[in-house]
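call fold(seq) -> C-alpha cells
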Amino acid sequence: MNSSDSDLQIAGDLLEVQHLLRPAPEHPSTVAEFVGLARTIAADRDRWAPLVRYDATTRWYHRLRTGPGYEVWLLSWVPGQGSGLHDHGPSSGVLTVLDGELTERTDQGKRTLGAGAQRVFAPGYVHEVVNDSLEPAVSLHVYYPGLTDMPMHAAQCAPAAATA
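ret:
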C-alpha cells in the first residue's frame, strides 16, 4: 500500500454503490456527505451552468459555496488546460466532472473522467488534472477544510500501461 491508497481514496469505491449514499445534509461532515453534496450540486445544472466562463489564457474558477470548514469551487477547462502536478495540503476533497471529459494523472497511471465521474482524495494525494479532449470541460471541487494550500510537485512519468 502506498501513500495514495488512503482510507478516503478507498472510500471512493462506495461511489459505485449508489443506494449507500444518503442525501447531503445542509452542512456535510463526512466523506459520503461531501460526495452527496457534490452530486446534489451537479444535478442542479440550472444553478451552476450560467456561471461558467471559459478562458483560453488561464483556468477559470468560481467559489460556488462555503459552509462550516468547507468550500465548493466550480472550474472550467478548455482543451489543453491542466492543473500541474499538485496536492491539496491539509484538505480532503471530492472532484466531480460536470460536463465534458478530464484526465487525472497520478503515480498509478491515468484515468479518464467523463461527466458524472467522481474522485475522492485525502490530504497529500498527488495528482494532475488535464483536459486532453477537444471540447471544454467543467468540474466541481469540494474541499474540507477549505483549500488553503496547493503545493506543486515536479513532473513524474506515470506508467504508460496503467489506465482505468
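Residues 38 and 44 are 10 Å apart (CA to CA).
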